[in-house]
Amino acid sequence: MMERGEPRARARDGFFCYSRRMPLAPGYFLTWHTYGTWIHGDGAGSVDDSNNEFGAPRLAPDPARFVRAVRRQSSPPFVLSPIARQLVSKVMREHCRIRDWSLRALNVRSNHVHVVLAEPEVPPETIVKQLKEWGTRKLRSHRLAGPSQRVWADHASTIYLFEPGALAKQTHYVNEMQDDPPPGHGRPDWQRTYFPRE
Questions:
Q1: Which residues fall within 8 angstroms of residue 9, CB to CB, at 6 or more apart?
Q2: Per residue in 150-184, is it b (16+ CB within 10 Å) or e — as a string?
Q3: Band of pLDDT at residue 177, cut at 50, 70 and 90
Q4: pLDDT at 81 over 60
Q5: Which of 112, 168, 176, 192 lies 20 to 30 Å from 186, alpha-carbon distance?
Q6: Closest residue by Cα to residue 52 from 25, 4, 14, 1
Q7: What is the maximal distance between C-alpha atoms in the chain?
Q8: DSSP structure string for 121-137
Q9: CA 19 to CA 8: how far, in whole Å?
Q10: What is the pLDDT of residue 54?
Q11: Is residue 29 within 8 Å of residue 19, measured between CB atoms?
Q12: CATH classification code of 9-178
């Protein structure tokens, strides 16, 4: 039996949420991927509707599931170029400033975005939705994404930072631990690997 307020994560409406209405935390650590770059069954592991308990390990690699998931994709994976990353970062920072959200860290990578916010006054799902929308608008206005092209994955990780030191730890992680990997390391080239030319 769960104690009052104990988190129990589950997937709902594209977000990994808690089964009880959580109080607003001292901070949030938010992460989401670009479309098609984190797929169930790949070697990085993932979380799905059947395997999403708070603190549970990610799903193990499953090549057959991965191939099925790739075949179901409606378009190629969306990878952010260096200029796209700069544009998205700038518009997201500006949106946080306009909304008066206490942004502690933001790092736009080629296939995902990390955000750390302190003293939030709105649920994390609202923040993710708005940042995705503004990032997409900016990319489309610069013709870096087509008018109907999917830019972001539906899901997001929304971690509430209640524990002492968690806000500083995640801020450090996002600001200092996201260097680009050396050649031969890191994730593959999504376009060539999963959607080869025929």
A1: 16, 17, 18, 19, 52, 53, 54
A2: bbbbebbbbbbbeeeebbeebbeebeeeeeeeeee
A3: confident
A4: yes
A5: 168
A6: 14
A7: 55
A8: SS-HHHHHHHHHHHHHH
A9: 6
A10: 58
A11: no
A12: 3.30.70.1290
Give the pLDDT score at 170: 95
**Which pLDDT belongs to residue 67?**
73
Beta strand 156-160 with 15-18: parallel, antiparallel or unpaired?
Answer: parallel
Q: In whole angstroms, what separates CA 192 from the centre of its chain?
A: 22
**183, two tokens:** 């050649």
| Domain residue spans of the chain | 9-178
| Amino acid letter, 88 | V
CA–CA dist 117, 98 (Å, integer): 14
What Rg do the C-alpha atoms of the chain give, in angstroms?
A: 17
